[in-house]
């Protein structure tokens, strides 16, 4: 089976390639595609077929997807332009004769008011309309999204957010990447939509407690009103667009939109997902 992976020069896509190889995929049967030619060169050294492509350039997509049976469509990072770019990728996949698309979406994308959901909902509609059979992986949040927050919290003794008591059912990025690799390489769950999340959800108080246990330093959680947090973020030099996004996401978390731990991800990958505290321990000992 020949498998193409978009966004392979990004964090998630690169891990999908790694997991495909670890699962025994023949390197020449894996196409890693993305825009960063330097990172593609590193992947090429692993023996995979590395081709530069751009979601906005149909010719490069045609070259990258040619001969592929399965496409792992890692969602674009270009927020606001994702739907158009994903449509370009799906049209190229159709031209290439791809039989199965594995798409990385967002939690409950078809019904959730989550700030990131609308573009994923629209892409899922494109998949329904496409003649290609699809598996939709609705990935919850990544532990790695909190690596900087962990570093700041352990340095200052305070984890600051405006999430209230809201919980996040996160897992390691590698867990989600492994799920995509499993499904792409086995063809399981074709035509299905899977809600993927970590097996344990946590809130701000639990974040602080886990950080304290891992580091041996006291960390407390300070939940602040959104406008106060806006002042803090703006004072740290973040531009208005980034501040608005962070506040919108914190509000989503406060309203439970990233809660909902399940065993689905663990069942797909065949082992428990990595907890936030596990990730804390990895980061802390790496830096120690």
Report the strand count: 9
Task: Characterize the biggest β-sheet.
Answer: 7 strands, parallel
The succession of helices and strands, N to C, reads: EHEHEHEHEHEHEHEHEHHHH
Shape: globular
pLDDT averaged over residues = 96
Rg to the nearest angstrom? 19 Å
- The order of strands across the largest sheet is 3-2-1-4-5-6-8
The N- to C-terminal Cα distance equals 42 Å
Helix content estimate: 40-55%
Q: If helices are DSSP runs of H or I spanning 4 or more residues, what is the number of helices?
A: 12
The percent range for strand residues is 5-15%
Low-confidence stretches: none
Classify the secondary structure makeup into a structural class: alpha/beta
Overview of the structural elements:
The model has no long low-confidence stretch (mean pLDDT 96). Helix 1 crosses helix 7, helix 8 runs parallel beside helix 12 and helix 9 runs antiparallel to helix 10. With 288 residues, this protein is α/β, with parallel strands linked by helices. It starts with a strand and ends with a helix. It has a seven-stranded parallel β-sheet, with helices on both faces. Helix 5 links the parallel strand 5 and strand 6.
């Amino acid at each position: 089976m020949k498998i193409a992976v978009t966004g392979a020069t990004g964090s998630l896509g690169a891990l999908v390639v790694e997991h495909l190889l670890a699962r025994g995929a023949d390197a020449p049967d894996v196409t890693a595609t993305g825009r960063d030619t330097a990172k593609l060169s590193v992947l090429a050294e692993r023996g995979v077929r590395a081709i530069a492509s751009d979601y906005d350039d149909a010719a490069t997509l045609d070259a990258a997807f040619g001969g592929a049976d399965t496409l792992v469509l890692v969602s674009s990072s270009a927020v606001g332009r994702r739907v158009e770019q994903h449509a370009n990728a799906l049209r190229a996949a159709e031209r290439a004769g791809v039989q199965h698309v594995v798409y990385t979406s967002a939690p409950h994308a078809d019904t959730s008011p989550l700030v990131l959901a609308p573009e994923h909902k629209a892409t899922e509609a494109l998949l329904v309309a496409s003649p290609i059979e699809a598996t939709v992986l609705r990935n919850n949040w990544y532990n790695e999204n909190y690596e900087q927050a962990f570093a700041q919290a352990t340095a200052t003794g305070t984890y600051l957010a405006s999430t209230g008591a809201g919980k996040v059912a996160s897992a390691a990025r590698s867990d989600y990447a492994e799920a995509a690799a499993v499904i792409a390489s086995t063809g399981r769950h074709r035509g299905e939509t899977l809600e993927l999340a970590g097996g344990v959800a946590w809130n701000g108080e639990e974040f602080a407690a886990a950080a304290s246990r891992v580091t041996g330093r006291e960390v407390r959680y300070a939940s602040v009103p959104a406008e106060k947090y806006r002042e803090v973020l703006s004072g740290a030099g973040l531009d208005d667009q980034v501040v608005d996004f962070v506040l919108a996401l914190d509000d989503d978390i406060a309203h439970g939109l990233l809660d909902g731990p399940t065993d689905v991800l663990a069942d797909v990958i065949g082992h428990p997902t990595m907890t936030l505290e596990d990730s804390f321990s990895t980061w802390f000992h790496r830096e120690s």
